[in-house]
Automatic annotation (TrEMBL):
Residues where substrate binds: 63
Protein name as annotated: Acetyltransferase
Record family assignment: Belongs to the transferase hexapeptide repeat family.
UniProt xrefs under SUPFAM superfamilies: Trimeric LpxA-like enzymes
GO molecular function, one term: acyltransferase activity
Pfam families in UniProt: Hexapep, PglD_N
Keyword Transferase: yes
Transmembrane segments: none
Keyword annotations: Acyltransferase, Repeat, Transferase
Annotated PglD N-terminal domain residues: 4-75
InterPro entries with a match to the protein in the record: AcTrfase_PglD-like (IPR020019), Hexapep (IPR001451), Hexapep_transf_CS (IPR018357), PglD_N (IPR041561), Trans_hexapeptide_repeat (IPR050179), Trimer_LpxA-like_sf (IPR011004)
Claim: Plastid is one of the keywords in the record: no
Length: 199
């Protein structure tokens, strides 16, 4: 089995480790943290970042999109994408490097997903959608056909993005939001219908 290191020791890392183990291709050998607070996660030792960890096979297990981007520039190296066996990814879909596609998610026909994205449990990204780098589609979120989402945006748990909607970069879609109108860069929206709360 090939070795892989996990960068980030928050809650997300538990789910990432289990997913990687379920695929039987890579063994997680260490969890890296800038200031470790525990010794091990699911029996994988946690250690402080060292320059010697640069340029190795790594998965960045950090839910924060901004932090994931920062770490991706620092650690460099090889970033495989992991897809759980229960996820459906159609052959016409494209997924970049460093992504994790969690159980029961759907990546539909002609979808494009950038680098270092998280497609979380039970999320759906429908046909022809375009998803930028460092995006998190959270648990149970539904992205309808033809939606465009810019770099670094979080699509909160259980939210619904209506067809053809355009969402800018580094936006926050609150949990449970029903997004019926385009969302500008950096905006925070939530509610049904979703309203801009912060710009
Ligand atoms: C595996 C996983 O865990 S994936 C999980 C991925 N994460 C998510 O989906 C979380 C998404 N984040 C949210 O929905 C957040 O609540 C945010 C970002 C929209 C807002 O966060 P904050 O700015 O910290 O808001 P805060 O918690 O202070 O709440 C402010 C007010 O907004 C309300 N509010 C917060 N979020 C929402 C929401 N999604 N929908 C409706 N109302 C909301 C609160 O009830 C509160 O109302 P009040 O002032 O009447 O008490």
């Amino acid at each position: 089995m090939k070795e892989i290191q996990i960068y980030g020791s928050g809650g997300h890392s538990y789910a990432v480790i289990e997913l990687i183990r379920s695929l039987n291709e890579y063994t997680p050998v260490r969890v890296i943290d800038d200031s470790p607070k525990i010794d091990a996660i699911l029996d994988v030792p946690v250690c402080k970042f060292s320059e010697s960890f640069i340029n190795q096979s790594t998965v960045i297990s950090i839910g924060s999109n901004k932090a994931r981007k920062k770490i991706s520039k620092k650690i460099k190296g090889n970033f495989p994408t992991f897809t759980h066996k229960s996820a459906v990814v159609y052959p016409s879909a494209r997924i970049g490097v460093g992504c994790v596609v969690f159980p029961n998610s759907v990546v539909d026909a002609d979808v494009s997903i950038g680098d270092f994205c998280i497609i979380n449990n039970n999320a759906t990204v429908s046909h022809n959608a375009r998803i930028g780098d460092f995006v998190h589609i959270a648990i149970q979120a539904s992205v309808a056909g033809g939606v465009q989402i810019g770099e670094g945006t979080i699509v909160g748990a259980g939210s619904v993005i209506l067809p053809e909607i355009k969402i800018g970069k580094w936006a926050t879609i609150g949990a449970g939001a029903i997004v019926t109108k385009d969302v500008p860069d950096n905006a925070m929206v939530y509610g049904n219908p979703a309203k801009i709360i912060r710009n």
